[in-house]
Amino acid sequence: MGLFADLRDSVSAVTAKLFAGESEDPKRIGIYGPPNAGKTTLANRIARDWTGDAVGPESHIPHETRRARRKENVEIERDGHTVSIDIVDTPGVTTKVDYEEFLDHDMEKDEAVRRSREATEGVAEAMHWLREDVDGVIYVLDSTTDPFTQVNTMLIGIIESRDLPVLILANKTDLEDSNVQRIRNAFPQHETIELSALEGENMDEVYDQIAEKFG
Amino acid sequence: MAEQEPETDDGVQLDLISAERMENKTSMEKIRMILDSVHDGDIVVLEQGLTPDEESRLIEVTMTEINPDGFTGIEIESFPRSETKESGFLGRLMGKDEDPAKLTVIGPANQIQSLHKDETLISALLKRK
Fold this sequence. Notes:
By secondary structure, chain A is of the alpha/beta class. Chain A has helices at 2-18, 39-51, 100-103, 109-132, 150-161, 180-186, 203-214, and strands spanning 27-32, 69-78, 81-89, 136-142, 166-171, 192-194. Chain A has a single domain, classed as P-loop containing nucleotide triphosphate hydrolases (Rossmann fold).
């Protein structure tokens, strides 16, 4: 009886999933990348374009985002159908945080220590989200900086090992030093889309790719 | 006058850890062993690196141990995983997606001045204690 009930529940679950159509739960898409790559600027751009609201404050100070923030039910319309996703804006991933770096941004020591403590908690939380709670990843890189870093290599390796769909975005193409090809060379196994989240350049292609990858 | 013994507490200890020594350890045992050495100011060189899952846990645990009184985190570099690994469903079924990284160097961030890598060389420049 128990076995039969389990089997019936499994069949029901598969059937419900197959016929759920547009009412299926939105996928959680984590926006990952190193600090200051423009993750929050991108999250805000997407959220503003499709919901009218922002996700969080943007800043040039590293670790401005110190908690993963979720914007639910962002509905992106492409070619007559709607893709529904939850955007999770995560703190920039790093292997080190030194409060003294914040002192360079006109902060008092107490504020810098508090900020660095929050940043470390945020990175730990982001790693946990990556292992447990996201269905896909948008990996944002600053195209003016060298992408061949250990953190990028490790994170892309972690994403691949979990078999998560990933879209690599080469951000900040509005800046003179931008070099998108360097990112394509670093991760040739993945699609790389160039954009300026700040200026809103090439967002149509970004949305096309989000719909294709995560829809 | 007798010669004084040279100071030894300004040296840097290098721990070269064989794959064999790590092979029967759990992920958390490996991470604990690495971080205990790094907390002591040592540089750890793993003959065989960590799996992606272990790397993500290493970052997570490192973050929880950073404190403003001394430990600022780690520097890490490794040679990439083999390009020839199995992929796809069968590969994952056989556990091949958990291939560890190759030779890996890990040290305290506040003691490593720079850590550079190219395809065949990892070069670490250390500060004196």
